[in-house]
Amino acid sequence: MKFNLRIPIIVLFLLYLFVPFISIIFWSIARGWRFPELLPTSYSLRAFEIAIDPSGDIVQGVITSTLIALVVGVSATLIGSFAGRAIAMHNFRLKKSFQFLVLAPLIVPGLAVTMGIQILFIRYGLVDTVLGVCLAHLIPTVPYVVMIMTGTFANFDRAYEEQGQVLGASRLTVVRKVTIPMVIPGLSVSFLFAFVISWSEYILTLLVGGGSIKTLPLVLFSFLRGSDLPLVGAASIVFMIPPLILLRFTSKYLVGRSSSMTGLGSV
Amino acid sequence: MRKSNIAAVLTSFVLVASSLMSVTPSGAVGTKLYSGKEWKKILSEAKGQTVNWYMWGGGAKINTYVNDYLGEEAKKYGITLNQVKLNATPEAVNKVLGEKQAGNDKNGSVDLIWINGNNFATGVQADIWHCDWSTKLPNTKYVNWNSSAVNQDFGLPVNGCESPWATASSGVVYDSKYVKKSNLASAAAFTAWVKKNPGKFTYPAPPDFNGSMTVRRFFYQANGGYNQFLGKFDQAKFDSAMNKTASLLNEIEPYLWRKGATYPATIGDVQKLFATGEISAYLDYGARNAFVEVNNGLYPDSTRVGVFGDGMIGNLSYVTIPYNSPRKAGAQVIANLMLAPQAQMKLQTDGIVGLPAINMNITPISGPYRSLPISKHSLSPTKLAKKANPEISADWVNAIDSAWKDKVQK
């Protein structure tokens, strides 16, 4: 018997992805939602009013998280690009060990390392600071950027850069006009990954930030410990928006060269 | 280590707990106040002093109350109130202990500490508190020093070493659709209701502050009250009392939420279960604030707050003055200001630290106080404090919490 499994699998996958969102959305606008009601019987925007209060925890969390994620996104992309280029285009001594070391943070359990980082950061006065949190976030982000950029530079033909130099462009101009445009898909995806990982990082922020650097995940967790489920719903929705916006602008690079596939549905 | 952690949790909770009051209306004061002359001398000494008040600083509303209200009141007496924000009260106690060890007996940096329970006990043991002052403050005439809930702090005599600030007393939040007032006639009546309504009650696992309180309430229930536990910890007494408590709790366990196979980790989880209608009653130091959740629509309109006919558990938090503070006069004036009827009423209206620690009924503003609106989804402080059982010392509390793990949660 011939049976096409593709459709049911896709449907299951979509359900798996979207069903949790449905309950979050309902919770965020419910006034209350009690057993045995199938759907909330009354609705209110109270949770969102709290969420957009400029001096409230959520807005403050968004500001802190955005600042940190931007700094981490840019720094990780920079650091990782240099490493990626070196690995992809150059041969040097101990290259294999270098590659292993770069990827090590992905292999070693994060929680174990975090404890050590905390002690080290206390010694250098980096705990409870935004700088410390940014530095800590580089640890899980840089390896991804290195992987992406190694792949990008593996297909990179140095001849284009040489051509530019031959035509009289300065080094900086070559980087600006030749190199960056050629690797921009890799850079964009790297930034997206680094941003999203930093954006949703919890344990590192908690331990290094000592609870005084309140990023959005920390705010979300503190709401989860309380009893206000609509507020948790609203915070979760706010939490999802920036990565989605970023995804909107980088999705074309995630699905290949076709710029016609920019819709979110295709990701 | 563990003890001081729990003490920190205890203290900081009391700080946050937006709760209640335990002064019974008697008004009798057994101690002599400062004479007019003595108090005048203290006032003139206090003028120009900067009082460093070390306190948990995590509550925005509390900080506003301290700086904007008490700070302004203190200015009228020429005193500058400097709030030093702590993550936990033991930091202040350790600071004074450190100063004592270093031989700094005269010029300490801490003038006032917000405190109760184990942190206070630690200081009593080390003899670092200035004593014999709190019962003499002019406004202490509103304090019911005769009540064991006031003159003992978690079972330890206060001895004039600390002055009351705010009260936390627990209550039962329940859904009147499923729980009748008669079901709260006593702790025993309530356990009978629990057995008749499987799955509709639970409590957070100790050492959650409220879970610990719930277990303690049943500890009193299983042993005919709290009196025998007010003294020092006694292992033999504890073993037999804990066995009785465990058998009571194990008896109701099959009738708890999810048949007691698991206990919620925090009071927040329990409140969520109430909000979603899974359970119909829970015990909470912050029970009085249930009306906020009703107004937000999270809790049903049928939400009510009640107390067991034979009382709930309540405690007071205090301020104390270290022995080496060079500004004891200023600190005492502040402690006195905190007990002023207006300042105490503001505790309740601003819903921040707890409820009044004084007997509002014998103050000049008892009329306005009594006419403060009380939501039907809340309970008046007087009713909440009715027959409130006192706390027992931290040794008992810790022993009960850890025995609960072995004998009930398993």
From TrEMBL, chain B:
It comes from the Bacteria. Gene3D superfamilies: Periplasmic binding protein-like II. Keywords: Signal. Residues 1-28 form the signal peptide. The keyword NAD does not apply. This is ABC transporter substrate-binding protein. It comes from Actinobacteria bacterium BACL2 MAG-121001-bin67.
